[in-house]
Write the structure tokens for this entry.
Amino acid sequence: MEKVLIVDTDKCTGCRVCELACSVTKHGEFVPSKSYIRVMKNKDMDVNIVALGTKCDFCGECVEWCAPKALQFISLEEATIKWKGTKVGSLPAPLIHSV
Amino acid sequence: MDKMNGYTGNILRVNLTTQRITREGLNMDLARQFIGGRGLNLKYLYDEIALGIDPLGLDNKIIVGVGPCNGTIVPGSQRFTITTKSPLTGFIGDSNSGGEIGAEIKCAGYDMIIIEGQSGTPVYLWINDDKVELKKADHLWGKTTNETRRAIEVEVGDPDACVISIGAGGENMVKFANVIADLGRGSGRAGTGAVFGSKKLKAIAVRGTGGVKVADYPSLKDIVKRNQDAWIGDTRFYGRWSRGGPAYNWYNYIDGEMLGIRNYQGGVFTKDMFAELGKYFSKHKSSISCPVSCNNSCVIRAGKYAGRRGPR
């Protein structure tokens, strides 16, 4: 089943625990720059937007660690129905190139 | 002694007088005896500065250090320590702060940055992994810390760069001046900002793309998870700190009528006045690796100062 990562940007505090958890699981060390999930920030506006690397295999480690519960995995079908055309604060994470 | 996980084993030494930048190995025996961050910083400072020096003079040093847990998933491990001889007390000056720069220093491959000498003109230090340079900061002198951060991010072309900087207080060597980290965090004790100002060091900007290894991640995960669950499960602690940050402890001061306005010239804060602060709240923010979002940002929405923002 294909999955989508749903991010609630209002809840995300920008702590980057997801990056740390992902990198240690996939690379064996805490190396945020190689994480498959990235928190992109606008420090002036306090905006945190999470983006997902193309190498992500949806292991769920980031979701498990997320303290403010800003992340969740749902099926692609469910996401398609729910988020097509909506303009609310939580959104399926965009994809970025994985290092 | 061999290298330990958690430490990178490198010290970056920057002499502002000669503009010379060198790397040296961390003394691992000392690292075992005096755990990194505060302990190790103090040991190095004690060994390196002479008796009776002027805190704002040529001989004082600034040591920015991180501990073995910085850059890992350990909650609350993001803090970095600035150690120097304090111009305020003339004794040990030791101030720590949260933010992301602690982890970034570690990822750049350093446990400690030692700054010595004095620069003739304003400079800032740019650390991009192995590439370290002192850059001119004449155009940044006089700017606020937030303006400095923005300008440096643009100048080095990296929005992920973390910046600590001083504002007008540090530049003019006010003896209790802070060093402000990029998320609106401050190293507020001991007048570290004044020592930055005396050295004409406007800012330190760091970007690291390396990693931090631990010996046994499954065990670490187990301990961290248990701690994190206990923190989050404790509604009194987590609920209050996540909403108000350390300000929630101020209720105790309010009860005792100890929280003065303008050095007690304007009376004391009351509970009602404190509750009013809620209307300025804009967003929960955390330092890296910390589940407790104690660094909330606030925005003034109306009146003379509308549009201004800052930490709570």
About this structure: The mean pLDDT of chain B is 89.
